[in-house]
Specification:
- It is built from ten helices and no strands.
- By secondary structure, it is mostly helical.
- The longest helix is centred in the last third of the chain and has 24 residues.
- The radius of gyration is 21 Å and the shape is globular.
């Protein structure tokens, strides 16, 4: 009985798998064992992985629940094929789960920076949830607990804003000196985020150069 061939792991398919899992390149490098420069050069289409390395990376994605065959098939339906083009050459760039589609106008650099921040927030949320609750002498919430709760809800809120940004919706507007709405206050609060410049970029002006200038 013939063995069914597996879809080749292309650079774009690797990116699509990472996006489905909401992982950055740093996450994959740390957890898969793939060398840093190899993954980065591979996804930049400047390096070809050895078969053993490609299988290692494929096994990593599949161990986390990604079905690469289904993902590739789904992405292949996004545009009509060019004459003579194979499935592996068709530019797979987006994940297949309908619950988390990343907007097409967001470049990979901003996607990675947002996902890295979201992962940082998730780790901090885990720490805060496990933190001991303390009370004052008279039974009220202690300053330490109140501070931790404020940070907890702030991290959760920031991740929601970043998530909606990846979906293509910017909820933060430039803060006004005299806030007229709750949204205006949100703009002032969001200034504490290291990705504030990302969250306030409009679709027609957003690009990676703005963040690096």
């Amino acid at each position: 009985m013939a063995t069914q061939s597996r879809t080749p792991l292309t650079p774009d398919l690797s990116k699509a798998a990472r996006r489905e899992l909401m992982l950055t390149q740093s996450n994959v490098i740390a957890d898969s064992g793939i060398q840093s420069y190899k993954l980065k050069q591979f996804e930049a289409k400047r390096y070809s992985l050895e078969l053993s390395e490609a299988n290692q990376l494929r096994d990593f994605y599949e161990s986390l629940g990604v079905n690469l065959e289904q993902l590739a098939a789904h992405e292949a339906t996004k545009r009509p094929p060019v004459d003579g083009e194979t499935l592996a050459q068709r530019g797979l760039t987006y994940q297949s789960r309908p619950g988390f589609l990343i907007a097409e106008n967001i470049d990979q650099g901003r996607v990675d920076s947002v996902l890295e921040r979201m992962e940082e927030n998730e780790q901090r949320v885990t720490e805060l949830i496990a933190q001991e609750h303390t009370s004052t002498l008279f039974g009220g919430v202690s300053t330490a607990t109140d501070t931790a709760m404020r940070e907890l809800f702030g991290r959760l809120a920031e991740n929601h804003l970043l998530f909606r940004f990846l979906q293509g919706r910017t909820l933060i507007t430039t803060p006004k000196d005299n806030p007229a709405t709750i949204g205006d206050h949100l703009g002032h609060w969001a200034k504490d985020s290291p990705l504030y410049d990302v969250l306030t970029l409009s679709d027609d002006t957003a690009n990676l150069d703005d963040l690096e200038g």
